Amino acid sequence: MNYEHCIRCTICVENCPVFRVNPLFPGPKQAGPDAQRFRSDKERIEDDWVLLCSQCKRCEMACPCGVEPAQIILREQQRYGREHPQTKTHLLFANNYYLSALGSLAAPLANLIAATQTGKKLAGKLGISTHISFPRFSFRTLRHERMKQSRTAKKVAFFHGCFINFYRPDIGRKIIRLFAAFNVDVVLPPQWCCGLPALGNGNLALAKHFAQKNAASLSNYIDAGYDIVYSCTSCGLCLLHDYPGILEIPQAKKIAENCYDVYEYLLKLMEEGYAQPKFGELPRRVAYHIPCHLRALKIGYPAAKLMALIPGLEYEILDDACCGLSGSYGFKKENESTAIQLGQRAVSLIRKTEAQDIVADCGSCRMQLGGLSGMATYDPAEILCESLGITAK
Amino acid sequence: MIKTDVIIIGGGATGCGIARDLALRGIPHCLIEKGDFAAGATGACHGLLHSGGRYVVTDPVAARECYEENLILRKIGQKCVEQTGGLFVRLPGDSRRFREIFLRRCDEAGIPAEVISASKALELVPNLNPRIEEAIKVPDCAIDPFRLCMLNIRTSELNDALILTRHKVTEIIKSHGRCVGVKALDQTTAETREIRANVIINATGAWADTIAALAGCHVSLTPVKGSLVITNHRLTNMVINRLRHPSDGDIIVPNEAVCLAGTTSIPIEDPDKTSTDFQEVETIIGEAAKMIPHFDDTRIIRAFSGVRPLLKSVKTDSHEISRGFQIIDHQNGLFSIVGGKLTTFRLMAEKMVDRVMNVFNLKRPCTTAEIPLDGQEDLSGYPLSRRLEDLKNIVCECELVTRQQVKKIIRQTGTKNVGDIQHRTRLGMGPCQGGFCTFRALGIMNDMNVISPEESMNILRGFLQRRYKGIRQVLWGDQLREEQLVEYIYLGVLAMEKPNARE
Amino acid sequence: MRVNEYDAVVIGAGVAGLAAASFLAEKKLKVAVVTKGEPTACLSTGAVDVCSQGDEPLAAIQKLPPEHPFRLVDEETIRSALNKFQQTVNAAGLPYIGSVEKNRFILTALGTFKTSCLVPVTMEASPQNASESLHIVTFRGLKDFYPGYIISRRKNAKFSVYDAGVSTTMSLAAHFEEKNFFEKFLLWLEKQNIYQDKIAFPAVLGLESAAEIVKTISILAGRPVFEIPTLPPSMPGRRLFNALKKTLRDNGGDIYWSWPVTGIEAAEATIEAVTTRSDGRPASINGKAFILAAGSFIGGGLTVTRHGIQENIFHLPVHIPGSRETWFDDNYFSMNHGIGRVGIAADAAMRPIGTSWKNIFVCGSILAEAQILKNGCGHGLALATASAAAKSCAEYLAR
């Protein structure tokens, strides 16, 4: 009953990026604790505006009363998904894992079609926004990397997520090599979509399905002495927050206790004295955009602490603006205007820093900011690798 | 000077019910109420339409009456009565014998009572104390008492009756020993109006003796204070009663998006000077928590007191219609109708108007039980969740009141009183108790030019003081934090106490 | 356990907490601020009230009862804290005008005058009396601002309504940051041919660029322009918060958001760490000294139950002047409610009285006997006591 604590201070509303630009969304206070007083388990609800929440969690980070509006809204979104027919985009994006697997298999062709006018028209008909290009599928996914047995003292299993696996396995390979530079062999455990796309598209059952499989796999590795690392902050949030929460995974506590953000882990290795890599000079000025879900993980900004060790690297932290894409959210036509307005504001704040490039932990943020600004985007791993002299091969 | 057939003094459920009955029987009438509707016990009760279960052991005849009225009100008030159902829960230690008698009497009175297991009860109301032994399901219902008055009055309005709220009766005019009219002071304009009628009905509840005294008559009443607390949200969707002899704090009623719990029973001297004690609040919470444990740490948003006008004694020369209420013929054109409960208001009104028919020698039958209440088409109705569909232009976010609704009330009633808007729309009845929306409602009134700056400030001051009275005894936890925020806004951001400088 | 090490850990990210942390960070100490959520300051008018009883705040402070926390700090501390504040916000692009020597008025949304001391430059032109004529520009659909309140109190005010296409405080402020929107608005404004002495707006004129926006409108209109603080969401409050946040970050301080302190670790009388429940691992932050600036009831520094009042992190004794009967007067407007005097009592070094903890300090609205609304001393008290607490804390760390 934590919505009891709401004193209507509107601090959550001040922080909601969607509310700022979309008058159809009544804001986290109205959609969460206010509306909850009128909802009943036994009555069907027609509050379709609840789908406009992008689950960025900024409301929860700001609430001084412990209300968790995003959680209230998330549960309502699942209910809505159960009680109403799914739209095409909801169906497609919930099954992003399977579709991306198909896309990767047919990679060159799939990418070609997506880039053509016909492809864009088809997307439009399906209700998909084309305000930025689709990510290109990679035929050689990360899963193709051979899984070595770990011979190092620290054993790490990498939960890479769909974005790296299907679209940017090169970043995944860099992360593996980065760990090697820290004297850690990284293995790839059997894994599936973390479940967040399904959860974000009103398909609780599918999300649970993925979560149960992942939990079993990761649990085995933990039992065998492995630490789990994730690089996508949305996967991380799902593992740490939704697995024990709405997805009700029994092994959730064990997983959360042994699960780290990649940069959090690397910092930990340095603090423990396990590794002392020498960062070489990198004279650049970058804008470090903080993904909303990284803020929500409450681990601070560990990648920033690592970048602070790179001589010559100037970085400015931007954590006040949501990029607006929020995974599949911004790819839906009904959210297109929201995504564009928010993205443009984030880009304009980036431009004010006069940075050359954008760095962000989240692939979704990179797609959006890169797509709208035309600037180059990097995962922090790529910056660290460059500084350490680690190349693609 | 206005001439009519019947004057009703008192705009509670009884008075409004009488007005409706008179209207349907074609009798011109005038209703005079010193405050707004439901200003007395009606506005300070649970809003419970009894199935009769609560009285079935102590007073089976009254119980049967309640049940019949319950059925009637459900029929005529389809959109304003919420058919919540009710449970009488038996806790460990509660008398099994009482339970046996309860069931037997319900059966005898024809009141549907179904025994259900503890697990079934917990399924229906998950917040129930898991230690309950069993529950008995009855057809209790809930209603907003103010709304009930408004809908009854609507019929009068449609029949051109004169409705005078915020008018205080200062004198009952007598001629040759008979009561022939009243003088009423308009509290807004300070003008006095004179209304003449053949029959005057005193339906003023706890003030019945005060009004009767104006005609040199007497009504024996014991005013008894009863207090209630309101929770932040619905802890139950069904009425919860305690399966034992009626006592303090053993009813919890869902109402709109909140719950009401209570009540207490404290004899008092002056119905105009009541306030809720902290001890009463503690008692109510304690008793309610036995049935729904969450009561102990849930957020309470308001506590208020009403005065029950209980009959002191039954006069042998008055016509006792039924137990629980009494119609007194003062033999001079004045009638007093006292006692009763919300559930039987319509029956009380029927009996009263039957008497009026006798006086006028007319044979028009009562139709209030057959004809649906007027004005229900304007209601949002139930279930509550339906109101979440469209959230545009909301002025009170806690209770989903729109700008259009507020403007409509202002135009229709010409009111300068923000309380009138609150009663009619539930603006300000939610967790923040009007902290934000009152500023908005008053702002709308300012923009519509219906009030002057002095009035504006006085209204706001009066509102804050009244609001404070309601929350003063529940200021802890979240509600205290809420209060500090509202205080910061009105006394800090809006600098309410500071007068204009150097005008 | 994940361990983070700091010299000082400040609990609370309001005006007091962020100011204390900034003072320490400037001295090159390693500082962390932990906070449950965003502070009450976001809801305030943004103006710094020092002491509103009278024309001169410093003189008024001298007249406060001896137990008032303002009497714990000397005048020099107050002056320098407020000076520092003005330098800080100026550097952050949000200049504040006014001086600690004299109070000034801000016109409120009710048309009353609020006494304050340092006000954001967007409220510099707020009238000090009823004689100036005003033109109020509001926005269609904005439900938290009604020019009628002000117009009904002043004979010389008129208003116009701009249809911005959006109608919430937040979206208006965000739109004013956009060049296209602003230019379109200015074109409309020009056509209004405003002739009154000053132009007033509800405080929605942008977020980070508010000062420039107000200046631009003023130049175009050829007359002073000012903002009127609104009901929450409050843009001036948020701007103040953003400026203080940025200052702390620029000075090298860390802020941990959504980090409610649920426990502490201590060795005898020395507090070693604060801990929180985090998804996953318990997280703790180690510090050599701690400053409690967690606010009053809204902020959560103090918790009131049916039967008592507690400070839940360090279990400091709470000064409670009487039983519950004395907490709330009959008259809402009495300004003397006992509850306003509740808080943590401190000594001149801002150490809490009655505790054996060696390394903790307090500042801000959690202090006892502040009676903030009665005395009009919100942010001013926060800044002055934060400065004193930071000074004591730094001295403690330097031993």
Task: Characterise this structure.
- The complex is a heterotrimer of chains A (393), B (503) and C (399).
- Helix content of chain A is 49%, strand content 8%.
- With 393 residues, chain A is of the alpha/beta class.
- In chain A, strand 7, helix 20 (363-373) and strand 8 (377-378) form a beta-alpha-beta unit.
- In chain A, helix 7 crosses helix 8 and helix 11 (169-181) packs across helix 21 (380-388).
- Chain A is globular and about 60 Å long.
- Chain B has three domains: 2-41 and 146-220 and 323-360, FAD/NAD(P)-binding domain (3-Layer(bba) Sandwich), CATH 3.50.50; 76-141 and 225-300, D-Amino Acid Oxidase, Chain A, domain 2, CATH 3.30.9; 382-493, no CATH class.
- In chain B, strands 5, 6, 7, 14, 15, 16, 17, 18 and 19 form a nine-stranded mixed β-sheet that branches. In chain B, strands 9-3-2-13-22-21-20 form a seven-stranded mixed β-sheet, with helices on both faces.
- Chain C is of the alpha/beta class and 399 residues long.
- Chain C folds into two domains: 3-95 and 238-398, FAD/NAD(P)-binding domain, CATH 3.50.50.60; 126-223.
- Chain C has ten helices and 17 strands.
- In chain C, strands 1, 2, 11, 12, 13, 14 and 17 form a seven-stranded mixed β-sheet that branches.
- In chain C, helix 1 packs parallel to helix 8 (235-250).
- The two termini of chain C are 29 Å apart.
- The mean pLDDT of chain C is 93.
- The chains are: A alpha/beta (393), B alpha+beta (503), C alpha/beta (399).
Give a brief rundown of this model.
With 393 residues, chain A is of the alpha/beta class. Chain A is 49% helix and 8% strand.
CATH superfamily of the largest domain in chain C: FAD/NAD(P)-binding domain
Mean pLDDT over the residues of chain B:
90
Number of strands of chain C: 17
Major sheet attributes of chain C? 7 strands, mixed
Helix content of chain B: 25-40%
**How does the overall form of chain C come out from the CA principal axes?**
globular
Number of strands of chain B: 24
In percent, how helical is the residue content of chain C? 25-40%
- Number of continuous helical runs of chain C: 10
CATH class of the largest domain in chain C: Alpha Beta
Tell me the greatest interface.
B-C, 51 and 51 residues
CATH architecture of the largest domain in chain B: 3-Layer(bba) Sandwich
CATH superfamily of the largest domain in chain B: FAD/NAD(P)-binding domain
CATH class of the largest domain in chain B: Alpha Beta
Q: Please describe the biggest sheet of chain B, giving its number of strands, its sense, and whether it closes into a barrel.
A: 9 strands, mixed
Supply Rg of chain B: 23 Å
Radius of gyration of chain C: 22 Å
Question: How far is the N terminus from the C terminus of chain C?
Answer: 29 Å
Query: How many separate domains make up the residues of chain C?
Result: 2
Strand content of chain C: 15-25%
